[in-house]
Amino acid sequence: MSEIRKILFPIDFSKRSIAAAPHVSGWASRFSTDVAALHVLDPENYFARPNPDDLGMREQLATAYAQRVRDLDYFCSRYLSNSHRVHQLVSAGSATEIIAATAESEKADILMLPRDHQTLGSRLLHDSLTAKILNMCPTPVWTSEKLNTLPATPLRQIVCAVHVAQDLLLGAANKRLLDVAHTVAQGFGAAVTCLYVRESGPAEQIPAIAERLKNIRSEMQDVAQIETGSGGIRQAILEVANRKNADLIMLGRTRLGTPGLGLQLHILKVDHDAPCPVLSIL
């Protein structure tokens, strides 16, 4: 990613949408980018068993659609008036499917998706919208549980957790992650700490790991420094993020086909404990 040209911002008119709006405006102003403000009218919120052939449902949805168009216009005029350009969209259907499809059709470079505070049980079993979007949408996703306590200050410090394994797919994912990190850092004039967490392995791998870290330092030399940690990856990320007073954590999402409980559970756990928003790359 060489530049950020469009941000997709799903809006449900909740407090989390209001709290996220200054962050969206800050990114839009920094990159002089467009904002696609999207509200999804999900029939399941109006009918226990939605039937598209039901005349009453169609009439009620038509009324609700017109109202939501007006509500979105009010929201954007009040909370996104400082954004560069705002394009308003109201669509009916499954929220997960509509958001993912709109990210693709609008060619969004960043999806900014605030979410509510999650309990342990909900994170493990039913973080429905965020978890599904993280699984099915290839667009980089920015999210945070703590927007009510996080001021939308300019980004100054970014912590980026990198891979160095000798694996083609991991290498490609790492390249995408570093490309986005470089673009975001240059746009905000932020410093990046690239964090590699050491895992146990054969001693003969150490020279190869050192060489790959050297290559990362070369690629990011104008904005980044390298740190290594040990132990659990999540704990290491949070330790460095707190020590650096990070304004953003960046990390990769789990690849499809990788075994584990909850495909993107590590993203949700980091977001739950992080002192700042999380931007994840697939």
- Radius of gyration, whole Å: 20 Å
Tell me about the biggest sheet?
10 strands, mixed
Strand content: 15-25%
Cα distance spanning the termini: 13 Å
In the sheet with the most strands, the strands line up as 3-2-1-4-5-10-9-6-7-8
**CATH level 3 topology of the largest domain:** Rossmann fold
- As a percent range, the share of helical residues equals 40-55%
CATH class bucket of the largest domain: Alpha Beta
What is the element string, with H for helices and E for strands? Answer: EHEHEHEHHEEHEHEHEHE
Give the overall pLDDT as a whole number.
83
Notes on the protein architecture:
The protein has 282 residues and is α/β, with parallel strands linked by helices. The protein has two domains: 6-148, 3-Layer(aba) Sandwich (Rossmann fold), CATH 3.40.50.620; 157-281, HUPs (Rossmann fold), CATH 3.40.50. It contains nine helices and ten strands. It has a ten-stranded mixed β-sheet, with helices on both faces. Helix 3 packs parallel to helix 5 (128-136). The protein is elongated and about 65 Å long. The two termini are 13 Å apart. The mean pLDDT is 83.
